[in-house]
Amino acid sequence: MVAAASVVVAVGTATGMISAVGDGGGADEARPEVSSSPRLEPLPAVPSPSPSVTGSPSPKASPKKKASPRPSASRTEKKRQTAPVSTRLYRHPESRVLDWVRANPDDPRRAVIESRIADQPAAVWFADYSPDTITSQVRAVASGGAAQGRTPVLVPYTIPDRDCGGHSQGGAPDLGAYDTWIDRFAAGLGSGEVIVILEPDSIAQSECLSAGRRADRFASLARAGRVLKEANPRARVYFDAGHSGWNAPTKQAGWLRQAGAASAASSDGIFSNVSNFHGTADEIAYDRAVLDALGGPSDLGAVIDTSRNGNGAPADGEWCDPAGRKLGRTPTLSTGEAGIHGYLWVKLPGESDGCKGAPGTFTPSYAYDLAR
Prior knowledge:
Blueprint: H1 96-103, H2 110-118, E1 124-126, H3 134-148, E2 153-156, H4 175-186, E3 194-198, H5 211-231, E4 235-240, H6 249-258, E5 269-272, H7 280-294, E6 301-305, E7 340-344, H8 364-371
Parallel strand pairs: 1-2, 2-3, 3-4, 4-5, 5-6, 6-7
């Protein structure tokens, strides 16, 4: 990823990972990073110097194209079995921000970070290639959400060459191994409502691959969507649409179609802005344009990462822990916007993109700057 979407930052969507990792022995519990952004009230500033940020190039913005009328769903499309998703999102009880809050009771920034970030629901990332323990890790999160009647957000992030050699490089050794890992991931989903953010940057950043390797990746992603939905018909699976400052809607839609995102058997729609900063209004317009160009069932929709987009994207295109950003809209599955299924915190606010700290590490000064 160039400015990727997960713990590792890559070209298009600087990501801050919430990694669910085990210790390699037996059923391991996921350790996600939880993000949240309640409605903010003015609070007194507390000095919190942050390390300097080093710039990195961001992807070139693509010209926006006018959306065309959206095709209606084909009669041959598989009928969707998914029940309406609960409007309540799940907050996993273990995360790096919660670890920091518990370990620093006297820090003057603690109250702000706890109330505005740690107390909010956020996605759980599964970024380590751990085929022996991934089922138990996923099951721990999915069952935790089901027990509370809440919907967890899960992020599988192990596609081979996932960041094209960027900060978040890594993943499964090859697509065959990835397919097996996805099978085991799906086995942990249970039967409750879950949202799956399938492989951030895997489609928007795929231009780094040869045409043949790109086609192979898209086939594997289409398969992944089918496997996830067959394992749990109540799972909502969303595919990578990059963000409004990256690829043109028609180009992105073409790739998404090749990856199975227009099929009800694989997909519930698209996600955008993961680990990036583009304003919600821009993302809504972009996502609707992508969906119009994509076609497919009329109930396909979009979810938007609003974790750090409260001030919009920096004018200079910086994606790596840029200064002057703030928390965006609180996570919700009730957006009031047609075709927009949710505002989610996929990236954990306070997790570094790789400039204020090591990629994916929690940086309290950065979290406080975003929250206050």
